Backbone:
């Protein structure tokens, strides 16, 4: 179950996310980069519920002023963008292709709409790719080798699209207090504020909510 | 069946447009946004005899108005902002739509005009037919005059279930109307939603009363409806009206009144079923989220048989927000407010 701060779905400025990890990582990113959290986190629990929530909010009598959406590209970034376009087609005319710096869209009489497709609006993948790009202390290649060893011994069962997620959680499993909840574990990780992706994402968040 | 609707200059509406309607239609909205007014607009539009409909809405429902007043001072309440339009100006328009266009042959207009003798008239037109009533005369003359028109052949297949309680004589009449058509069973079946042991219904003479009263047979005992709670009386009112509206229309204001949320789903089930089997188009209003959920449960799997709209009022304008079943599902599954 989402905790209270992830349930602020009624805010006038609202950010829709796919799950717990997403909320924690974005909140952590904001803290680390000194971005004011002037929006409500709304944990929709999965990707299809994010899409449902966009539609439901747009039809509300009392629409939000700003709706931000962060979704994983998963296996097909283009298809993901088309899903979103299809869901809002009665309201917005969105650009044909997803802008690489994230979308901030204004249309008269409608909430300002922001879309970011993880990891970087261009590649397939998910939030974990985005996070591992910033968390430079996490030796992704080394952990991946170790996971591959485990795979050879048939000790794994994760789906292929969740490889980065497995890498991230494997790393945390080895730190002080294994099994620590993600929100606590990520507090101890240094993020690279100068990474290109950090600048672009920060720019998107600020231009959307400020 | 009415597939779309527009009302202009009627009651609280400068204009309201609904581009798609189906067999069962639910309208939501905040208090005083005009849900009842919309049903009233449908009532006048669908009624065979417009003056009869107007009389009912203004005199029977709104008791503060008197039939002894002149027509102008009573009828003005039907118009936007309670103001009679100046002679010749655009008045009330009620119509169905063809795309975005008003279907003239199916339009009803109500406006005022100046006659040859410089008297002002109320002019009601329906398609090409036109009726004129002097505005200075009593409202009751307007009503009497309407009864003399040759098209007075009101078939009675349009029923309006008001939000408030039941008029005893009226309910008795509805019951008697279906006596020879074995449709009373539909009513008895529906009443079992609340009272499982109910086996029969009768309207009997009562001491010191001129009208008959409704009683139910429950577990072999005779029980007056008036002693049985709001819910069962509401179902009696709704279903009896619906059965009387075969091949016609049923309007239900504040559907949920008196109905506990646990029974609303079953009442909607009966309504969806009778809408098909008796060929009745239903228009209902609500401001209850329980009612919306209950309606949604019956809408699922019948996507084309129903519509749902929320009436909004913003910046001095009315608008409607349509919901498909999938839209409602999106809102309910993400706990988002629909009302």
Residues:
């Amino acid at each position: 179950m989402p905790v209270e701060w992830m349930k602020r779905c009624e805010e006038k400025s609202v950010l829709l996310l796919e799950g717990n990890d997403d909320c924690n990582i974005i909140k952590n990113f904001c803290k680390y980069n000194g971005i004011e959290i002037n929006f409500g986190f709304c944990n929709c629990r999965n990707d299809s519920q994010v899409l449902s929530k966009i539609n439901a909010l747009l039809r509300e009598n009392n629409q939000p002023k700003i709706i931000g959406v962060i979704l994983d590209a998963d296996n097909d970034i283009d298809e993901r963008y088309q899903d979103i376009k299809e869901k809002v087609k009665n309201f917005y005319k969105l650009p044909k292709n997803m802008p690489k710096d994230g979308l901030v869209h204004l249309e008269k009489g409608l909430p300002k709409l922001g879309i970011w497709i993880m990891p970087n609006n261009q590649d397939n993948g998910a939030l974990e790719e985005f996070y591992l790009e910033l968390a430079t202390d996490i030796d992704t290649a080394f952990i991946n080798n170790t996971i591959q060893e485990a795979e050879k011994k048939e000790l794994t069962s994760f789906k292929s699209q969740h490889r980065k997620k497995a890498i991230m959680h494997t790393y945390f499993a080895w730190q002080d207090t294994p099994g620590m909840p993600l929100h606590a574990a990520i507090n101890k990780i240094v993020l690279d504020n100068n990474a290109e992706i950090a600048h672009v994402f920060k720019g998107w968040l600020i231009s959307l909510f400020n | 069946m009415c597939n779309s609707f527009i009302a202009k200059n009627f009651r609280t509406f400068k204009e309201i447009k609904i581009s798609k309607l189906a067999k069962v239609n639910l309208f939501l909205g905040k208090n005083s946004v005009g849900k009842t007014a919309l049903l009233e607009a449908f009532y006048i539009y669908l009624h065979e005899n417009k003056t009869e409909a107007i009389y009912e809405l203004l005199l029977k429902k709104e008791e503060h108005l008197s039939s002894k007043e002149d027509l102008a001072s009573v009828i003005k309440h039907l118009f936007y902002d309670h103001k009679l339009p100046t002679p010749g100006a655009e008045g009330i328009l009620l119509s169905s739509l063809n795309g975005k266009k008003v279907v003239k042959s199916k339009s009803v207009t109500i406006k005022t005009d100046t006659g040859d003798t410089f008297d002002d008239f109320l002019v009601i037109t329906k398609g090409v037919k036109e009726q004129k009533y002097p505005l200075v005369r009593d409202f009751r003359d307007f009503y009497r005059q309407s009864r003399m028109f040759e098209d007075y052949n009101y078939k009675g297949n349009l029923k309006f279930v008001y939000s408030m309680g039941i008029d005893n004589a009226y309910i008795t009449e509805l019951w008697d109307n279906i006596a020879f058509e074995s449709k009373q069973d539909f009513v008895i079946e529906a009443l079992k939603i609340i009272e499982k042991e109910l086996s029969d219904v009768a309207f009997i003479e009562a001491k010191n009363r001129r009208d008959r009263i409704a009683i139910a047979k429950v577990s072999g005992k005779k029980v007056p409806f008036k002693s049985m709670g709001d819910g069962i009386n509401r179902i009696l009112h709704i279903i009896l009206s619906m059965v009387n509206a075969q091949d016609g229309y049923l309007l239900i204001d504040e559907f949920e009144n008196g109905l506990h949320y646990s029974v609303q789903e079953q009442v909607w089930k009966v309504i969806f079923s009778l809408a098909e089997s008796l060929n009745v188009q239903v228009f209902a209003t609500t401001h209850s989220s329980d009612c919306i959920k209950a309606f949604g449960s019956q809408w699922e799997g019948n996507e084309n048989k129903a519509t749902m709209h929320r009436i909004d009022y913003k910046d001095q304008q009315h608008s409607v927000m349509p919901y498909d079943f999938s839209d409602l599902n999106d809102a309910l599954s993400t706990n988002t407010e629909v009302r």
User: Anything to note?
Assistant: The mean pLDDT of chain B is 91. Residues 49 and 152 of chain B are 6 Å apart (CA to CA). The radius of gyration of chain B is 21 Å. Chain B has two domains: 49-148, 158-333.
